[in-house]
Amino acid sequence: MPGPGCTEQRDGTSSTEQRGETMANGPEVNLQRFLQWLQLNNVQLRGCSIKYSDSNKGFGIFYSKNICDGIQLVVPLDLSITPMRVLQDPLFGPHCRAMYEEEEVDDRFLIILFLMVERLRKNSSWKPYFDILPTKFQNPLWFTDDELSELKGTTLYRATGLQKQKLHHLFYEKMKKLAEELLTLDGFPGRKITFEDFLWANSVFWSRAQNIPLPHSYVFPTSSEGQGRSTS
């Protein structure tokens, strides 16, 4: 029974408990966890700092001082989410390697799948990073029906509808079943993945992916060649 000053919620938790959970996972707490995670992974913030702005802008990197060589931030390649990283992962690799080699899926599919599933894994080593990312995005794919109706008659309205159809097909025909199988293997049977989970991963990919020149030996570690390649 709830104690004095508490109200019971429909899910059985008290409002005090919910406030405590919110405070425990607030932006400043998430930021501190993320900074600790960066330190553990040998990220160097040389001439910049990461701060929380507000609920609209979220987190950002801010200039703090001049650096002689001009390098403000150093991130190890091990923190790059690449297709090869997904294929080498003990959970993802066995299920994705054949599909990738037979060109049934591409680089983007692998990374979006990884983002979506890792975000839902309770013990993901990437959790401190995911916790500082937006939970929703301000692009038309996230608009409600009422918001989208304001765009009727525009090319953006038609383009948004076509893109949503493509994403629905990709999610329900290829990605949903595979992602749920991966979560079951990871010890979370019955976990249903929604289209919004997929839309979040897709939005993270398109708002943050970059082409980075990497050593050939890093992208393909079994090869001894040293040519440069580009990856997202």
From TrEMBL:
Q: Where is this region: Disordered?
A: 1-23
CDD domains referenced in this protein's UniProt entry, alphabetically: SET_LSMT
GO molecular function: any one?
protein-lysine N-methyltransferase activity
Name of the protein: SET domain-containing protein
Query: Which InterPro entries has this protein been placed in?
Result: SET_dom_sf (IPR046341), SETD3_SETD6_MTase (IPR050600)
Q: Which domain of life is it from?
A: Eukaryota
Q: What is the lineage of its organism?
A: Eukaryota, Viridiplantae, Streptophyta, Embryophyta, Tracheophyta
